[in-house]
Amino acid sequence: YTQSKALVFTRFGEPADVLHLHTHSISPTLPQGAVLLRTLAAPVNPADVNTIQGTYGARPDFASQDPNSPTNKTRLLLGTPEPAAVPGNEGCFEVTAVGPGVDAGKLKRGNWVIPAGPGFGTFRTHALVEDAVGRLVKVDGTGLSPVQVATVSVNPCSAYRMLRDYVDLVGESVRRFASADPPRGGMWFIQNGANSGVGRAAIQLGRLWGLRSINVVRERETVEETEGLKAELKELGADVVVTEKEFLDRSFGARLKEEWTRGGREPVLLGLNCVGGQSASAMVKALGPRGCMVTYGGMSRQSFPFPTGPAIFKRLRFEGFWLTEWGKENPEEKRRMINEILDLMRQGKFKQMPVQEVKWDWDTEEQVLKDAIQGTLAGFRSGKGLFVF
Ligand code: NDP
């Protein structure tokens, strides 16, 4: 038998209040089509906390009487007294045992895999996965760390889709700038929350695809720290980095026009909104005619007024992005994109976001694990929390 531990919750609330560390054992006789996984690394994303709080778009249904509902399946598999959910959407796992009926060409012992879809439950030491071939993406771990593989499928994939699917910046860059003499530029996009995992991925992918980025970050406590953060993002490929304060200042419009966009002749046509509130309203002003703002996060927990004038006179487009839905609609493209990004990492063209590793071994106390999750939304952190096993 494999002894296993999992964080579970049976009702919504603050992670510190509702999570429990549950111990169970997994039989060596695996069901048809199942594999047993050992977790290597799993990051804690903001959505994981929101899911535990019950405020996320996808909610485990603890009240369901259906024996096949995911929370009841978790109860049966883990032996919890009530319907339960394991939090965590992303992770890198190693296949340690394979049940009957699993095509060895698709999955075998020693392979590294990541969950194909959301709601997998990655905050656990082991996972018994039924219908394994469809629920897992096999990855070639050559030249990659478990941390790189564990963090590829949410942040970089979201940045990738938002830069490609709303405005054809890449094609327009070729049309407008490829033959410029002297060579210059690429189309602009603007983003707030630029220091987030998604933001850092957008900076890097944008640069690789010949785009230019204006990046908004929160001011740090000291000027040195703020300048350090700006320099770090520029190192990743950011063209312009400004603080929220500079962004909200009246002078920003003139700077945008004069310093960066040649009097508005090279307009910003895409905005990625991670923050909401005033920052989102400022982004509306920065967008050029027919620009598009894609909202994907609400880190400030503030909404923003729908800007009637700009929507009409600049004919702006407002879109929402949710990777979960996109992934359900495009499973094959998701697998392809993951492998493309892993390739970039392997070639050293895509840098890992900073992480704060939290070691999870057999003796790690429940409180340490809960603290790591509870701290996720605190902000001004030196990196994303990530369990390593
Ligand atoms: P990270 O955990 O990597 O970073 C969080 C970021 O949020 C930090 O850069 C932090 O800024 C910033 N932040 C925190 N509080 C505030 C605040 N009050 N005002 C402004 N900025 C703030 O985040 P992720 O990249 O994983 O996710 C970022 C956002 O994107 C989240 O809202 C997440 O839910 C969302 N997301 C949405 C997806 C979708 O499909 N819609 C997919 C992936 C992510 P600082 O550096 O200054 O601390």
What can you tell me about this protein's structure?
There is one protein chain. The protein is of the alpha/beta class. Helices cover 35% and strands 21% of the residues. The chain is built from 16 helices and 15 strands. Strands 3, 4, 5, 6, 7, 14 and 15 form a 7-stranded mixed sheet that branches. Strands 10-9-8-11-12-13 form a 6-stranded parallel sheet, with helices on both faces. The chain has a two-stranded antiparallel sheet with strand order 1-2. Strand 9 (212-217), helix 9 (223-236) and strand 10 (240-243) form a beta-alpha-beta unit. Helix 6 (155-165) packs across helix 8. The longest helix has 16 residues, at 331-346. The site of NADPH dihydro-nicotinamide-adenine-dinucleotide phosphate (NDP) has 26 residues, from helix 2, helix 6 and helix 8.
Q: Based on helices, strands and strand pairing, what is the structural class? A: alpha/beta
Give the bound compounds. NADPH dihydro-nicotinamide-adenine-dinucleotide phosphate
Mass-distribution shape: globular
- The overall pLDDT, averaged over residues, is 96
Which radius of gyration do the C-alpha atoms yield? 22 Å
Number of strands: 15
Uncertain spans: none
Through-space gap between termini: 19 Å
Strand content: 15-25%
Describe the main β-sheet briefly: 7 strands, mixed
Task: Please estimate the helix content.
Answer: 25-40%
Tally of DSSP helical segments: 16
